[in-house]
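**User:**
Make up any protein.

**Assistant:**
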Amino acid sequence: MKTQHACFIIFLILLFSACSSERNTFTNRVYHNTTSRYNAYYLSNEKIIELENIIQKTHKEDFSQILPVFYPIDSATIDQNKELLKEARELSSKAIDWHRISKWVDDNYFLIGMIDYYQADTDDAINTFKYINVNSKDKDLRHRSLIQLMRIFIDQKSYDDVIFVIDYLSKESKINKENRYQLFKTLAYYYHTKDDVEGKIGALDKALGYSKDKKDKSRINFILAQLYQREGLDALAYSYYQEALKGNPPYERSFFAQLYAQKVAELDKTKDIKKVRNYYDDLYSDSKNKDLRDVVLYEKALFELKQEEREDAVKLLIRAAKEEGSNPIQKGYIYQKLAELSIEPNKDYRAAKYYYDSALIHFRPIDPSFAEIESKKGILDDYVMHYETITKSDSLIKLSKLSIEEQELIADNFIKSEEERLLKEAAAKEKPKNSGIFDNLLAFGGRSSGENFYFDNTVAMQQGSIDFFRNWGNRPLQDNWRRSTQGFSSSASNVIEESNVNPEIDESKENLFEQIPSRESLISKIPKSEEDVSKLNAALEISYFELGKLLFFDFKEPEFSIENLENLITSYPNTVKKPEAYYILYLAQKERDGNFQLYSQRLNREFPDSPYTFSVNNPGGASGNLAYMQSSNGYKKAYELYNARDYSQARKILRSTLEEYPLTRNTDKLLLLDVMISGKLDDRERYKARLESYIQSTENLELSNLARNMLVALTGEKPEQDKIEEAKKEEEVASTEDKVEEEKIEEESPYKENPNQTHIFVIVLEPEKSKDAKNLLGELEGFHSANFSSLRLRTGNMTLNKENAIYIVSPFNNAEKAMEYRSKFLNDFQSTSLSDTDKSKSLLISIENFQELNKRKNLEEYRIFYKEKYK
């Protein structure tokens, strides 16, 4: 017993002495190595591996583009899992503090470097990996740290540092297989950022030789197949696509590997068109591809385009857009292709704009197509804004000139045409039903289900709804049991109450009413006063000019440009944009070999002092930076002569400068100085006329104000325009506090108010609620089908940040349409997934602001702007 007791005491002494983090004894080292490795390091590493698996799972692959070598790190995913990284950091930090003599200290430092990397604390990560490289005795860990360091330098595009690390590692011996695998993958990433396809292929090919994981091999094979396909090496691409099918890849990647393998091997080469179409049809029919039907239709559309079957391709793309699909990015490509086909050859820029709007909703800012579409969309947005202003304003002005009876007749005809359209849509949706025994019996009795039975006939139901609405208006459904308490006014409700056995029918009736505008609502939009008409004319004048300008310079459409600018000059002969309009017409007619001399003559006759006149008279005049510098010298010389009172010589130099460099950034300054010289050499009326003309035509506010002051000094009276502006300012003083507050909001907010831009409706849910809202998208689709079938609305969902998941309904032409939808949604949309509070938190956002919100991820910041602007 004494011996056992003594042994136990010795054991305790050894155990407690081993707990010391300072004493470097054998027992101490064994204890700290074991505890550090199998407790702190193991658990910390597992949490980092868990995060990497989450990054992989949440990433949506874009198979239309070459897959990235490394899965992209989404900041939202990191934010959602910051607790995981916090726990990993605590474990590794404790391992370093408590087990300082352990040989796993450097490994824990490496994990802390990785945590800093994922949290975008790159400076700390770089310092940690550099520290390990300099101080660690573990060669493999040093190599691993250098490879990770190289990846950070590639992210930062610090290519000199990358080259230094590559050179350093190339001289290192005995790099283990795992590190070689990571090294060649990182090299492939480096070659990708440098657009070196050969280097990328070579690095990935070498990485394959060191890969142990079958799934990793499958993905690398897929990337290599894509690269070879882009290079036109179809045989190699086919071989690698076949290899990519090994290793039990995810079904989606397997589907694309098979599809692309067929394309490079047969689909793009065969002349048996029927066989190819059948292949796509079989893919579409396969139940396993239910979530990929949009992809199948998209690929089939591309095939039809190669056969020059453009109409069939467009129909397939429209079908593809309606398919639910599993990857939002694919919808982006579908809408992008529809936009491109709208532009060429149809020149339907309006449709293209709305298709691009839809495409942007489905692309992320990091996607290659996002920037490409954004660059195209600016001029399309301007085009549609001016096109729709012209269409709407012109129609309303014409209607305002008619009598009330004529306006009512036009409104009635419009309502009738809408009714006919709805009936046609109902007829198109009506599907023949399968004939069964009961149908045969009904048919024998003259009541077949598809023709005479009211509740089976959509067209009859639509017609009945329209007739009821025409006679009784849009009346609410209500309980009508206690008829005695309601009186005569409720008698018309009896019909509805008695048919209330079928709530679906009632809902369709009510929805139909809202699709048909009333005569009163149509007539209320027609301007009544001269002031209203003047506002529409002012908008029309601007839009005719801007559209003509866009069509010539941006869309290269001289014919359409001429049409709009001629309308401007004919309808608004006194427009201040007339000189520039003449100049664009001159250029457009010249381009199409038309009568450009006509506009040259008009410029010389009506606007002899205009810079556009100087330009047409001197077609060889220089432009660009050199012209700007030379015209600056001319202005300086002329101004010096003006100050020296040598007005004639100053005018001579000015005129020669304007003739040689007619359109530069100095043009407005040169013209104002010419006007000032006119005040010294010409008569008073000529000087006054030139000042007034300059004030109207210049867009430089500072120079315009200077000219106004000159006019006031000459006449002693302020110009009429100034008086109007002063009156406006006096009105604004009354609401100074509101104005200041609005300006403050505008200054602080990154969002812009643009009610005419395409809008999106957004439902916001917490992530937990979103998980339970599995049926929400389907319920929204049903709501749209019943209420907004003519709008072709689309739905989707995404994670905005860790606090919010959002459901999107789009597109709406403008804020007004989106607000109408929200009102209907709040009143009529019913779902077990949404509480009234959730519904009330829904909001509207323009497409431009949605892109900003998607970058900033701060929903509350947008709500402040939303509450102010969408009252």
